[in-house]
Amino acid sequence: MEERRKPLPKRAGDGEADGIIEGRNAVTEALRAGTPIDKVYIARGETDASLGHIASAAKDRGIAVVDCDRRKLDYMSVTHSHQGVIAVAAVREYASVDDILKAAADKGEPPLIVVCDELSDPHNLGAVIRTAECAGAHGVIIPKRRSAGLTAIVAKTSAGAVSHVPVARVANLTACLKELKEAGVWVFGTAAGARTSLYQADLKGPAAIVIGSEGDGMGRLVSETCDVLVSIPMKGKLNSLNASAAAAILLYEAVRQRLG
User: Fold this and answer.
1) Which of 43, 152, 166, 220 could in theory staple to 84 by disulfide, Cβ–Cβ 3.0 to 4.6 A?
2) Residue 123 class from Cβ within 10 Å (0-12 exposed, 13-18 middle, 19+ buried)?
3) 233 in the same domain as 106
4) Residue 52's domain spans which residues?
5) Domain tally for the chain?
6) What is the mean pLDDT of residues 211-220?
7) 207 occurs within a structural domain
8) What is the value of pTM for the model shown?
């Protein structure tokens, strides 16, 4: 008689199998215990009161709550018993923008900050954080919505840099950039068609470098809020770079200028 093979376990979606917390009781206890959480996903259309309480508790802690199709939860689930809610744990607590500015002040250095505008690929975000740490940047800022967060895959891709670089998550990126400008930080946005070359920009002073999303680049409001738009010279047949590669080029131009 042929031996019946056990079915392979279902693959979790979005590369976030590590650190997911499933089920109403488990998510409720994680929130009550103060576990760092990146996002809470709740099945769209659910009317159960306990899910409403979970959403409220998460929002009170500043955690992003995402309404999604139940099929997405089924795809993400490892236990196959998510009860309409899955939380994705963060590998560490998020910092504040003030924490980042203070880190620069404590070192007696002009702030060097990376701002990621809706960078949704966790591998790209992890690579940006790794480069930021190597370049001596004082922190990374990401938006709460439509962005990868400090999940296990981001931590792995960053090669441990998430333990050393403060990452702040803000509700409104445009408002955050305006606050940075009020604090004396110049905001440099990357745009393919910008007339100012990266190598003409003065990155020696307080600087925030904005990296746009993988597909669309910077959003309109974010772009309009920048003080200076800069381009990276492109000599090949392609007209764009991977977001993390662009971040590396800009950061190390800042390093070069500051060493000089």
Assistant:
1) 43
2) middle
3) yes
4) 13-89
5) 2
6) 84
7) yes
8) 0.84
